[in-house]
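Lest this sound abstract, we let one protein speak, letters for residues, whole numbers for local backbone shapes, and leave readers to judge:
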Amino acid sequence: MNKQKWKSKVIEIVSIVALLILAAIYILLMGDRISIRMLETILNQTIITAVVATGAVFIYTTGAFDIALGSAVAVSAITGAFAYNKWESVWIMLLVMVATGVAIELFDSVLAAFLNLPVFVTTIAMLSVLGALVKILIASGGGAKIEVPREAVRVYDNLWMKLVILVLFIGFCIIMYNYTPLGRREKFVGGNPVCARLTGISVKKLSIIAFAIAGIGVGLSAFLTVVKAPTITTSTASSVGMDVIIAIVFGGMPASGGSRSKISAALIGSVSMVLLSQIMTILNLSAGASQCVKAILFLGVVTLSGLKGRKAMLTR
């Protein structure tokens, strides 16, 4: 095994070891207080983050990123709630949420393509736009929150239903990512966009497809969020965007995307982030201190993952 492959393997192992260490710390801190309900809480939180992160892998593979995913989830949840309150159908609510998520993500990518801007520039702008839109939509409802009747979604608020949604979406993403030309081309673009263009690959087209798939994850996550907590406020999904970035990198995927990208990073990183959040809650760390810990870990993992890159040759 050459030096490059050895470093890549180390990153993968470190991600799994870090997950196991976090799990061990959580178990030690909880001791006899661990219960089935607590484990279900961890799984519920993991599923919501993992669904968004899995779709976002397609964006991050190309070397782009989207920090507005949390606001997109909130807007999708609100439009879905409006749809339910009008038609009283959970299925229409789900379709509206997915359609809204896809529409928002497509707008990001198409706008970047039309204006010939880097995608991350439009996502930064959309972070402010969507944040303001959340406040406007909630205010239009005549109060400080938008609600879906608890009895309407109670039947879907069970762990098995959520796991089915997660497994189906991950399965779809694995097929698209590993068994179609889409994943290979996105890795090529992330590794070297100039070479990708010279071979005839449409970088803009791949970006649009990547954002569309991420939009499906946004819509599904909005549905899972409303099922879990049918009261939507301005703080709903506010931390999702940053959590997804940290989860993907913490899961062993390079921040720059490219050939080392993988779907499994989303799941590994999501579980790790939820366990880390639970540990900091047990230790009574403030929100500011928790963000500092996440930032330090993020910088450390990004630095470690950067050790994999060659300076003289393209990754193989």
Summary: The radius of gyration is 19 Å. Strands lie at 146-147, 231-232. The chain is about 75% helix and 0% strand.
